[in-house]
Amino acid sequence: MNNDFLVFDHVTKRFGALTAVNDVSLTVNKGEFFSLLGPSGCGKTTLLRMLGGFERPDSGRIYLEGKDITDLPPNQRRIHTVFQNYALFPTMTIWDNIAFSLKLAKVDKQEIEEKVDAILEMIKLSEHAWKYPHQLSGGQKQRVAIARALVDRPQVLLLDEPLAALDLKLRQHMLLELDTIHDRVGITFMYVTHDQGEAMSLSDRIAVINKGRIEQLDGPARIYEAPSSRFVASFIGDTNFFHGEIVSVDGDYCFIQAEGFPQIKAFNDKQLKVGQEVDLSVRPEKIRVTLAPPSPDSGAAINVFPSTVKDIVYQGVYTKYWVKSSVLQISALVPHSRFLLDQEPITWNDEVFVWWHPDDGYMVEVA
User: Is 333 in a helix, a strand, or coil?
Assistant: First the structure.
């Protein structure tokens, strides 16, 4: 355990009858951008608060660089938190807000000046140093809050839904800012969010949490493309589920019989046997919607289903279709890789074909 940077070791936290965190174990690497992702009430903020020292686990231990910090108060941990409401001192200038913790620690005056000026330069707010928080935009305030938390080089920076108060465009801009700041300072970031887009954009690894337990801990690509459970598949992005039974196995592939639907061919990565139940997840962007069926040599012809268009939403870069195939409704995202107005349009109630390659579905075994 001494070789691991940050370790939660079988940590449990209860609030009365509610088990907020249920026997969680995980390891975070030094310098990693690590996200805790899940719906409201899943336990992710409780994990963050236990790491910060604001809550104590009922059982289990927390280690930082080999040291047991479970019982240390917050002021004895080199761990700082950035909150979504910024928590800046309104009567202090931006410079003084950032310098506050250094002054409290009685750091030499010249060193304070050097550190504050350097971090103001890094967040590109040097010209605003002597303004007050109310004179800054939301994005600028958030950068100041991050700078204040980083100025004395903590071991870990905790970010609890830090972008939730910002509008969409500003959030997108701040995602880039956060990524850049992390790359420059090299400090371990622990990021809590319910926004899958934020977590996928920023993280080296993500722990997807549900009802106090980790459902999957992996890199963003594996969590999206190879979800470990139906919950992860449905929480991370949109997906189509086909619930059924394995009716035959053919080498590396199998055929799934979904109720009221033709057989579906899928890559059998879990080596399931005939008779086992399965949920097949197929992401909307993997599904093609065409007026004519694909050619037999396309490699996808095995999973081709006649369908009827029920709804269409045009989104500029893509169009989202909802189609009815047999008894199931399927969603598909079709990107506009060519000039759309030159193509024959697909419209409401059109008879179309939906199809996908057998490798593009991912099977989640039913427990």
Answer: strand
Inter-residue contact 161 to 125 (CB < 8 Å): no
* Chain CA centroid to CA 36, Å: 7
DSSP code string of 235-273: HSS--EEEEEEEEEEETTEEEEEETTS--EEEE-TT---
Spell out where the chain has E strands: 6-15, 18-28, 33-37, 59-64, 67-68, 79-83, 156-160, 188-193, 205-210, 213-218, 240-250, 253-258, 264-267, 277-282, 288-290, 304-314, 318-325, 328-335, 351-355, 361-365
**Per-residue CA distances from 284 to 8, 93, 335 (Å):** 36, 49, 11
Identify whether the C-beta of residue 11 lies closer than 8 Å to the C-beta of residue 57: yes
Structure-token pair, residue 366: 């039913």
In the numeric block, which tokens belong to residue 171? 């959030």
351 SS3 class = strand
Is 45 part of a structural domain of the chain? yes
Q: At 78, which helix (H) or strand (E)?
A: none
Nearest to 37 by CA among 171, 207, 162, 165: 207
* Total domains in the fold of the chain: 2
Give the pairing of strands 318-325 and 361-365: unpaired
Identify which of 35, 38, 16, 13 has the alpha carbon closest to the alpha carbon of residue 24.
13
The token pair at 25 is: 């174990």
**82 and 177 both lie in a single domain:** yes
CATH number at residue 159: 3.40.50.300
Residue 296 lies in a domain: no
Global confidence as pTM: 0.92
Q: How high is the mean pLDDT in each 10-residue block of the chain (367 residues)?
A: 83 97 97 97 96 97 97 95 89 97 94 96 95 94 94 95 86 90 95 94 97 98 95 94 96 94 95 95 96 79 92 94 95 85 85 95 85
pLDDT of 2:
47
Place of tokens 């060193």: 111
Cβ-contact 265, 278 below 8 angstroms: no
Range of the domain at 352: 238-291+303-365
